[in-house]
Specification:
This protein has 13 helices and two strands; from the N terminus they run αααααααααααααββ. Strands 1-2 form a two-stranded antiparallel ribbon.
């Protein structure tokens, strides 16, 4: 059995620990070397553009980390995977954001990388940018994305004490706010967070910011409240009118239904009155020798016939 010398073993170990030549060229920004490595050899072999190092980083991760945009474009053109995940689930976008490379981040987003792409603990690239104070990157990302701890990049910036980023995110959110009202509950939570992580200057700023926001909300709410009261009164009045109209309609329908019954009751009373008069006439006729006969008269209302007395001289 052949045993290698200590020097050979050292060289083999060194070779294993050394990053692949493509990754080294990307780190150095050596575009010519990258093109050479990716070009097929005479035997048709070429370097795998998506090869990784010991922690799963591809050439695109390296180029994104070291802000090598021309190299990144070449890797992508040769089939590089811009969505490749390395250790902790990090994609090239996370590397760019973590290191403050806004141009790289913007390029990756334009090529289709999700702005909310998640790494470990559900953190986006913007969380990394906010955590490290990279203001330029914040302008191309989603400030509302939440990680596993339910923190957005705004909370990360507060915890790290990056006041400029906090101001930028708050202003950006306020510009997107259709109602114009500040979220006072959020601001109070940010004050507590700044105090918890011992960021006194930021805490003082947020206290002043919150007082100004409260004053703004009160001024903005005054006409809104008055308008809301007027609108509520109009709605109540309209509701009462509709309710009254429904009541009138119901009573009208009930009255229409009751008319036939009322007519029948009146006809019966009239008929009873005629019968009494008929009996009276019979009694009178006996003394006057007048014959009283009754002939049927049709009742068109109740479809019934009644005998009405008629006087006839014999």
């Amino acid at each position: 059995m052949y045993l290698s010398s200590p020097l050979q073993q050292f060289n083999q170990l060194k070779k294993q620990l050394e990053p692949p030549p493509l990754l080294t060229a990307c780190e150095q920004g050596n575009l010519a070397e990258v093109e050479k490595l990716l070009k097929p050899s005479l035997l048709g072999k070429k370097t795998d553009v998506n090869q990784t190092n010991e922690v799963g980083w591809t050439a695109l991760h390296i180029a994104a980390k070291y802000n090598q945009l021309p190299v990144l474009e070449k890797l992508f053109a040769c089939g590089g995977n811009i969505h490749a995940k390395a250790e902790y689930g990090r994609q090239p976008l996370h590397m760019a954001c973590f290191n403050g490379n806004a141009e790289i981040a913007q390029w990756l987003i334009e090529k289709g990388v999700g702005i909310n792409a998640l790494a470990e603990h559900e953190r986006t690239g913007l969380h990394d940018a906010a955590f490290n104070g990279h203001e330029k990157v914040m302008k191309v990302s989603n400030t509302y994305a939440k990680d596993k701890a339910q923190n957005t990049p705004l909370e990360d910036a507060v915890m790290q004490g990056f006041q400029e980023i906090v101001i930028m995110i708050l202003d950006h959110r306020q510009q997107q706010n259709k109602h114009g009202l500040y979220d006072i509950k959020l601001l109070k939570n940010l004050i507590g967070l700044a105090q918890k992580y011992q960021r006194p200057k930021l805490a003082d700023y947020l206290i002043h910011y919150t007082l100004t926001a409260k004053k703004h909300n009160l001024e903005l709410k005054a006409p809104v409240i008055e308008s809301d009261i007027e609108q509520a009164m109009q709605q109540k009045l309209q509701s009462e009118i509709e309710k009254l109209q429904q009541q009138i309609q119901q009573e009208k329908q009930q009255a229409i239904k009751a008319i036939p019954q009322q007519l029948e009751n009146k006809w019966r009373a009239f008929s009873d009155k005629l019968e009494k008069q008929f009996d009276l006439l019979v009694n009178v006729s006996n003394s006057l020798q007048v014959t009283v006969v009754s002939e049927p008269i049709s009742d068109t209302t109740s479809n019934r016939s009644n005998n009405t007395p008629i006087l006839r001289l014999l």
